[in-house]
Amino acid sequence: MEEKAIICKDLTKQFGDFVAVNKISFEVDSGEIFGFLGANGAGKTTAMRMLCGLSFPSSGEATVAGFNVFNQQEKIKRNIGYMSQKFSLYENLSILENIEFFGGIYGLSDRQLKEKGEELVNTLRLQKEAKKMVGELPLGWKQKLAFSVAIIHKPKIVFLDEPTGGVDPITRRQFWDLIYKAADDGITVFVTTHYMDEAEYCNRISIMVDGRIDALDTPTNLKKQFSAETMNDVFYELARGAKRSDN
Amino acid sequence: MSAIKIEHITKTYDKGNVTALNDISLEVAKGELFGLIGPDGAGKSSLFRILTTLLIADKGTATVDGFDVVKDYKQIRGCVGYMPGKFSLYQDLTVEENLTFFASLFGTSISENYDLIKDIYVQIEPFKTRRAGKLSGGMKQKLALCCALIHKPTVLFLDEPTTGVDAVSRKEFWEMLKRLKEQQITIMVSTPYMDEANLCERIALIQNGELLSVDTPEKIVASYPQQLYAVKADNMHKILNDVRFYENLQSVYAFGEYLHTTFKNDEAQIESKLTAYLQQKNNSGIEIKKIEPTIEDSFIRLMTEASLIKQH
Amino acid sequence: MKQFLVFVRKEFYHVFRDKRTLLILFGLPIMQILLFGFALTSEIKNAKIVVVDYSKDASTQKIITKIAASSYFTIEHNILSYDDMDKAFKQGKIKCAIVFPSSFNEDLKHTNKASIQIIADASDPNTARTLTNYLISIISNYQAEINANVQVPYQIQPELRMLYNPELNGSMNFIPGVIALVLMIICTTLTSVSIVKEKELGTMEILLVSPFKPLYVILSKVIPFLALSFIDLIVILLLSNYVLGVPIRGNIFLLLMESTLFIITCLSLGLLISTVTNSQQTAMLISMMGMMLPTILFTGFLFPLENMPLPLQIISNVVPSRWYYYVVKAVMLKGLGLQAVWKQTLILLGMCFFLLTVSFRNFKIRLA
């Protein structure tokens, strides 16, 4: 049997009386594209932080890339990549400098950095812009670049937090091509999004409501289960009953 | 007289190095719900700021409610409502304090125009003593809309009101806008979500500071020149790569659970020919059907055409 | 008018609901006053002193032994020439020196009167004053001893010389300095940050796109801070009077008027900062670093201006707190009236007018 990338059992995070994440359980296969959806404030970010080794769960168990989220956070961090819409790259460093910096953090050698840097710039067709400051690039390019940098060290799992927010429809699809390619290379992709059509591109999706996972299946099965036409309808059906919201 | 009239507006930043808006002309009729649809960085916010007198265009003129955006800025400031992008209210003031403040700012009171905001305000009224910072994204957005409406503006500018808000709140927000329209308020709203375009009466598709098209959503979709096909198979990623090498292909891209494709020649048995090709490439569960395009399909086509023109 | 009042009320909400602002507003002045007050008046132990003894006799030896025995002093060198002493002062090796003239014993025996010279490094005026007081009390202690059984009393006359800062500026003078510093920081930082915060939030766009006049936006931001700074001033004056025992000798009304003028000057400086920055951090940095450092350096309450190189003295003229400090010192500590400070008042008035004009001009009614 193939190793699971993420195993989560009754994972819970409590802040005082408030149960942000309430006993969520799921498994993600290696090489799977796993969509992690939910209404504002459903607990997505909190759950993702625990899986990335950034915060301790209150109770439950979880392993990420085979490592325990309670006592092997450092090992988890070495085996994952992370990218979010808010923080991606340093705007006042050039493309190559960003690659060198983030690659360097994960301990890539100078030779690897040079090879990877060239390869990355070539695949993204950024040869002309390689020495430009990242801040000067259009948003869509930045996001594609940020993703490529997030997987530069070939992590086992990459976490993407709303990676395509505000990006134009063509670039959004190019971004998903990159995600597919990473999945083909065996990288497990864990992604959140507000675009419901993107939910369809995932192998399986989970939908969080009020700290719980209320639905988890392939997009086709979910639509069948809720007898809905689109993922949008499925989401609406589930999230409509949400009691709480974000911040 | 039109509520908003924009003529040949050009706006550049950074001493002319960055063009935010390039020769934009546009008219919005009184009482219309008009959508400005485009990704981040398309120039939507710049246009809003010019119309709300916050920025001055390099070239061109514009009027709002008959007033010139440069000369008559004082009159405009008295009659428009504006909700800026990434706008957050005073986080440390309560719901009621925020609303009272904005009401007095415009020289009015909550009770005076309560009718206008009633539908929206009743939804947040139970939380009126809560600080705005502790509200959910959806509720914040409702409060912001109340604040923008409290002085009964004739024209309402909403810059990306639904960005970062979940699908449920987005749907509710658009229902509120429809009800406002019945009050004869002209509304100009921008959004990066293409699926929201259908909720507007007329839309402008905007990309890189240029208008790709301005019309009703129906007409924009109807002007799609070709037959669009939806293609599906068990392994979507594999089929996408295979279709890309199909000789008669014009364009293909993922679209939800399907691929959307167009072909160079709309020949008779296009479906059976493609099926044969895909089967030969070992795809299973193949499904091909004719479909009507959406706004997003139109946007993608117009965007591709625009960039082709630029290259030549 | 109602609009205006609502706006001002909103500003007060912001202040009273933000712990950080409250801390700067009320924690800072109290902390500063107490810190300066107690740090500068605390006891001094083991100060390095040189003894230049030209007399070398039994009585000088006794005095030297007494000095050495006290915990306040450590005798650095016993015998030294006058030139060596001078050098030691310049290098900052010693804080204080005591010089016995060669005729000390003879004068004392024959005329019953002798003098001792005490020299102190007064660039740190408080230390200098404390040290000389200690020495004088040691000497009078000795004097009392030898006078115990004689009919004609002996008199030892200490002659004081304060090096570098003969007027001993600073002893009590840190109070006016702290007032200037606190008002400067509060007014510039809080005003600039509160305006820039609206820019960051995006609410500034709404304020501009409203019929409310941009000028009123500024005014309604300034007025709450004017009131709050005034309260701060009262708190400082009360603290320094009742806790540190610094009297207010002059006309309190004049003092308050002058302070209001200074507060308005600082507020307009804060406004000016807010017109050239777009982030709270930058505004904070400019107000804190850009304003605090010159205020500390060029006001004259920690580092006497007279001892600064000429270029720095010239620069100090454009620092408003320098003039305000002079005024407060004159009115509060020396009890002087307006006729003594009218020049400084005029300078402050001019600065205030200039800053207000520039910041009003700079305030944009649009975004760019």
From TrEMBL, chain A:
Residues 6-235 form the ABC transporter domain. Keywords: ATP-binding, Nucleotide-binding. GO terms for molecular function: ATP binding. SUPFAM superfamilies: P-loop containing nucleoside triphosphate hydrolases. The lineage of its organism: Bacteria, Pseudomonadati, Bacteroidota, Chitinophagia, Chitinophagales. The keyword ATP-binding applies. This is ABC transporter ATP-binding protein. PANTHER family: ABC TRANSPORTER G FAMILY MEMBER 20 ISOFORM X1, ATP-BINDING CASSETTE, SUB-FAMILY H, MEMBER 1. The keyword Membrane does not apply.
Automatic annotation (TrEMBL), chain B:
Belongs to the ABC transporter superfamily. Keywords: ATP-binding, Nodulation, Nucleotide-binding, Transport. The keyword NAD does not apply. Pfam families: ABC_tran (PF00005). Residues 4-233 form the ABC transporter domain. PROSITE patterns: ABC_TRANSPORTER_1, ABC_TRANSPORTER_2. This is ABC transporter ATP-binding protein. GO terms for molecular function: ATP binding.
UniProtKB/TrEMBL annotation, chain C:
It holds the Pfam family ABC2_membrane_3. The chain crosses the membrane at residues 21-40, 174-196, 216-240, 252-273, 285-303, 341-360. Its main location: membrane. It comes from Pinibacter soli. It is a multi-pass membrane protein. Belongs to the ABC-2 integral membrane protein family. Keywords: Cell membrane, Membrane, Transmembrane, Transmembrane helix, Transport. Residues 116-366 form the ABC transmembrane type-2 domain. The keyword Transport applies. This is ABC transporter permease. InterPro entries: ABC-2_transporter_component, ABC2_TM, ABC2_TM_bact-type. The keyword Hydrolase does not apply. It is found in: Cell membrane.
